[in-house]
Design brief:
Rossmann fold; Arc Repressor Mutant, subunit A; two-stranded parallel sheet; 14 helices; 45% helix; 6-stranded mixed sheet; alpha/beta; 3 domains
C-alpha cells in the first residue's frame, strides 16, 4: 500500500485493503508513505507483486506504468495519458445525491463550496447538473480568511452572507467534504445565521467531523470507502494472476446521505413557521406540548395551523410524529436497543404507542422494520 495514512479517506481505504488481505493465505502487505523526491526507483528494491496507491502524482503513475508491476490508483486524480487502472468513488453520483436531498427538502436556492481538485469538479458537476435538470442554478462560494486575536483563522463566505441578507433562503450549501462543511457552519454560527432554516449544509465522508467537531451535527454523504479498498485489492489480486486490467475507471457509488440537524428541514420562508419548526425539531423527542409552541411563536393556534399546513403540507403534530418515526427508524436499523427503549428514546414513551403509530405510518411493525432494514456490522 503506497498510501499516506494521515488522510481520512486514504486511511479508510487502507482498512478495506487490510480486510481483503487478512482473508488470504500467505499474503504480506506493507504500508509505505509515498515520499516525494528525485524519483521512484527505490520502490523496485521491494520486489512487490502488486501496488495499491492513493496518489495525484503524475510522475509516480508514469513510473508504475513503466515498471510493469500490477498497480491500481484509488484516488480520483485527473485523467492522465496512459496511466494505471483506477478504482474510485463515483464522485459525480455524490453530487447528484446531495442535490436530490436538498430538492426533496423543498429548497430553491443553492450554492457549492469546494476547491480546484478533480474530485471537487466531479462533485460540483453532479450537483449542478441535477439542479439544472430540475430548473435551478447554483453559485460557487469562495472564502475570505481573517486572522483573529491569538492567531486563529476564521473562514468568511461573503456571498453566502449576502444571499441570506437578501432573503434568498433557505440556501442549500453542498461542500466538497466535511472539513469544508465545518467552515460553513462556523461562519453561520459566528454571524447568527439560522441552520437549517436559513442555510442548510451537507458535506461528504460522514467522518467524525460531521457528528461531533462542528457547532451542530451536519448532514454528510457517506462513501463506501472500505469497499473501495477491498475491491481494489481484489482487482489487484486478479491482475497479479494475469487477468486484464480494466480499461475504464471502476466507480463505487456512495452509500447514502446521513441526515443530521444541518439540513433536516422543510424549506419555508415564513418566519413564524420556521420558528415553529425549530421548536418542534428541538423538542420532538421529549413530551412536547403544541400549545407551548404556539405561545412561543406568538400567533394564534388556528393561524399557525393554517400557515404551517400551507408551508409544509402537514400539521404541527404530524411533523412531531414524522420526526419521531425517523428517529425510531434510525434506532431500529442501526442498534440493538429493545423496542421499549426505542419507544422511549424516540419520544413515543411506551412500546405499545410506538407499535401503533409506527405501523400506521409505515405499514409495518417496528420488529419487521428492524428485520428488513437492520444494517449488518461494517464489512468490506
Amino acid at each position: 500500500m503506497l498510501i499516506r495514512l494521515s488522510d481520512f479517506y486514504a486511511r479508510t481505504v487502507a482498512a478495506g485493503i487490510r480486510g481483503f488481505v487478512r482473508a488470504q493465505d500467505r499474503w504480506v502487505c506493507e504500508a509505505i508513505v509515498p515520499e516525494m523526491g528525485e524519483g521512484w526507483d527505490w520502490l523496485l528494491e521491494g520486489n512487490w507483486d502488486g501496488i495499491v496507491t492513493f496518489t495525484y502524482d503524475a510522475s509516480l503513475i508514469a513510473f508504475l506504468e513503466k515498471s510493469g508491476i500490477p498497480s491500481i490508483n484509488v484516488s480520483n486524480a485527473p485523467p492522465l495519458p496512459g496511466g494505471i487502472p483506477r478504482l474510485v468513488s463515483d464522485d459525480y453520483a455524490v453530487g447528484r445525491l446531495a442535490a436530490e436531498h436538498f430538492l426533496e427538502r423543498g429548497l430553491r436556492h443553492f450554492a457549492y463550496f469546494g476547491n480546484r481538485s478533480n474530485v471537487s469538479h466531479l462533485r460540483q458537476k453532479g450537483f449542478g447538473d441535477t439542479l439544472a435538470d430540475a430548473g435551478f442554478p447554483h453559485e460557487e462560494l469562495w472564502p475570505d480568511f481573517k486572522i483573529e486575536k491569538g492567531g486563529w483563522m476564521r473562514t468568511e463566505l461573503p456571498r453566502m452572507e449576502k444571499r441570506v441578507a437578501g432573503g434568498f433562503w433557505p440556501l442549500g450549501v453542498f461542500c466538497v467534504n466535511d472539513l469544508y462543511a465545518r467552515h460553513v457552519i462556523g461562519c453561520c454560527y459566528t454571524h447568527g445565521i439560522q441552520m437549517p432554516e436559513q442555510v442548510a449544509v451537507a458535506g461528504v465522508n460522514n467522518s467524525e467531523v460531521a457528528d461531533g467537531l462542528a457547532e451542530i451535527p451536519f448532514s454528510s454523504v457517506e462513501l463506501q470507502i472500505e469497499k473501495i479498498g477491498f475491491e481494489a485489492a481484489q482487482l489487484l489480486a486478479g491482475m497479479m494472476d494475469g487477468e486484464p486490467a480494466p480499461a475504464e475507471p471502476v466507480l463505487i457509488p456512495p452509500k447514502g446521505l446521513v441526515v443530521r440537524q444541518s439540513s433536516d428541514l422543510v424549506a419555508v420562508n415564513d418566519a413564524a413557521v420556521a420558528r415553529a419548526l425549530r421548536l418542534i425539531r428541538e423538542n420532538a423527542l421529549k413530551q412536547i406540548d403544541i400549545g407551548q409552541v404556539v405561545l412561543k411563536v406568538g400567533i394564534s393556534r388556528r393561524l399557525l395551523e393554517m400557515r404551517f399546513r400551507a408551508a409544509t403540507g402537514r400539521s404541527p403534530y404530524a411533523e412531531v410524529v414524522r420526526l419521531r418515526i425517523e428517529k425510531a427508524k434510525s434506532l431500529l436499523a442501526t442498534g440493538d436497543l429493545p423496542v421499549s427503549e426505542v419507544a422511549e428514546a424516540s419520544g413515543f414513551g411506551q412500546a405499545k404507542q410506538l407499535h401503533a403509530i409506527f405501523t400506521r405510518e409505515t405499514g409495518m411493525a417496528p420488529s419487521f422494520y428492524r428485520r428488513l432494514y437492520r444494517q449488518p456490522p461494517t464489512s468490506p
